[in-house]
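Response to reviewer comment R2.3. The reviewers asked that we include at least one raw input/output pair. We reproduce the pair for Enoyl reductase (ER) domain-containing protein here without editing.
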Amino acid sequence: MSAGTTMNALVYEAPELMLLRSVPRPVPGRGEVLVRVEYSGICGSELSGFLGHSSLRTAPLIFGHEFAGTVAECGEDVVGYAVGDRVTANPLSSCGTCEFCLAAHQELCPSRKLLGAMLPGSNAEYLVVAAVSLSTVPESLALSAASMAEPAACAVHAVTRSGIGPADTALVIGVGPIGMFLIQVLLAHGVTTVFVTDRNSERCRMAAALGALVIPDGEGFLSAVRERTDGRGVSIAFDAAGTRTTRRNCLAAVAPGGSVMLVGLHEDETSLPLNTVIRSEVSLHGVFAYTPTAFRTALAWLEAGRIGLAEGVVEVDLVDGAQWYRRLLEGDPALKVLLRPRTAACRVHHPTGYRQGSATPTSCSVPGAS
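Raw output as returned:
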């Protein structure tokens, strides 16, 4: 493939503005692979970036870090992969040599980089990934399901970090994709009592179908938690929403000596009653991303059918991506939106704005993006 070859990509250009552009197709370097993207999932963490509220995502940028596809080209010194192989990838790369990487905490590497934030992401027909980050997707697992290995890995890492056991009780606040995976991973760990709450009644229905015990969101929520745990509260509470209210509710719902796992990244600042934390010896744990081991475990569990999203998954053309970022912000009940880059098409004209690469970019307007 020549360096001048182009591809379609959904480019974030300003708050609430994404355009489908024709941009230079990346060329894999030494140890890198060019992946032809079949599915690219919209992550909840990207929604604040779409609004312009994320310091990690600055325009112009191609979002996307949850994906699966096939190998289109291998760079020099790549072994173990060939054109046509079905793959997904851990989108969080690390240096491999710092004290955190050597201690198997790659998610804390000071030099870590995330696709779709520090590097061009998967909301495009192609992207380049380091071969060491790739995982082969077996034929028994659909690529659409494999594209959800990343959010599943977040859940695997959070539950592992919590140290929860079968005799413990759990609460999950926020049942988006990671919340749904949290329920399944907790149940797979033998936890029999998993409470959930969410403002979205349809998502609560889906959570109940997985085996969770739904507690309606509202003023009586905390009383209901206490009542159903003999007045104690839950052993471990997982905040998968990341708001001031959900963090406070997790703390209020947990038993003395329990733990609050802070998983959701949304609002930055939250005021908490730290005297309660001290007197009740409650542990607060930040949970960021996942380790490579958690990613591989998530992919294996997806293949085995131990976890997965059976409902609420919507597949849409890449050209409609901007509409769906907005729809999710407005409360659309879709659980996971998968963009299909290979079906993208547009009316080409000559725009300005996209600065990456040397080819002359072209674009088309995405309905609802202006």
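Residues 6-148+309-364 form a domain with the Quinone Oxidoreductase; Chain A, domain 1 fold (CATH 3.90.180.10). Residues 149-162 form the longest helix (14 residues). Further pairs are available on request from the corresponding author.
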